Amino acid sequence: MEKKNRASLIIIITLVVLIAVSGTVLAVTTINDKKEQDFLTTAVQTSTENAETTSINIDKQLEELPMYADGVKYYYATSSEQLQHDAMGATVMNNSDVNISAFVIAFCAFDANGAPIKIRQPDEQGEGAYVRTISYDLSAVQGDKKYINPGESFDNVVFYVTNDPQIVTIKACVKSYESVDKIKWNNPLYDQFKKQYSGKNLQ
Q1: What ranges in the chain are assigned the alpha helix state H?
Q2: Count of beta carbons in the 10 Å neighbourhood of residue 158
Q3: Is 180 left (phi over 0), alpha (psi -120 to 50) or beta?
Q4: How far apart are CA 137 and CA 154, in angstroms?
Q5: What average pLDDT does range 62-84 have in this prediction?
Q6: 184, burial (CB in 10 Å: exposed 0-12, middle 13-18, buried 19+)
Q7: What are 6-48's pLDDT values in tens digits?
Q8: Where is 110: in which H helix or E strand?
Q9: Among 172, 170, 193, 174, which Cα is nearest to 109's?
Q10: C-alpha neighbours within 13 Å on the C-beta side of residue 168
Q11: What mean pLDDT do residues 186-201 have?
């Protein structure tokens, strides 16, 4: 009888130990799960922060698109007899695999301190706008140049402006284009371009 009680006691002790060990394992697993969840949350937050930081580099992102502004220039009317007014200029690059016959380009302008300027054209009524667009249809102009080949640039983009206040820095972005075969493309980063530059001080 005593042996039976001793055996029962051993079984009970063994069960208690197993339950205690299981509880410890469960607790450790729960802690590890929490650590993993914290890590995932941190990773998501870091990813979001990186995405916000990347938005600052919008210029580099634009250069990877099928068509982009490859350079900008400011023309002073006093520097050329052909210009009656100051003008913003741009060169666009066809980085696509189609022949582009028409496109729309957007401009933002800033003064010497990097403050945004509302762009106005000569003799224009009103205060202008922080983003101005100009459309080019090469198929409708005179001359032999009716489209921009893939890998080719076009540097005859001109937008006449007033010189008060004086524009010092220009940002440009191709908003859309249409190919000879009527293939249309809209810039997926255009809204991001406006968010970065429209009415904002340069960083």
Answers
A1: 2-54, 58-62, 190-197
A2: 15
A3: alpha
A4: 12
A5: 89
A6: exposed
A7: 555 455 555 444 445 455 433 434 434 444 444 343 443 433 3
A8: strand 100-110
A9: 170
A10: 10
A11: 97
3 state DSSP class of 87: strand
| Helix, strand, coil in percent for the chain, rounding step 5 | 35, 30, 30
Token readout for 100 is: 């582009």
Q: How many CA within 13 A on the CB side of residue 7?
A: 4
Residue at token pair 């402006």: 161
- Global pTM reads 0.71
Over residues 85-110, the pLDDT tens digits come to 999 999 999 999 999 999 999 999 99
Of residues 135, 61, 68, the one with CA closest to residue 95: 68
Dihedral, CA of residue 31, residue 36, residue 38 and residue 43, to nearest 10: 170
* Tokens standing for residue 184: 């249309």
pLDDT for the residue 34? 46
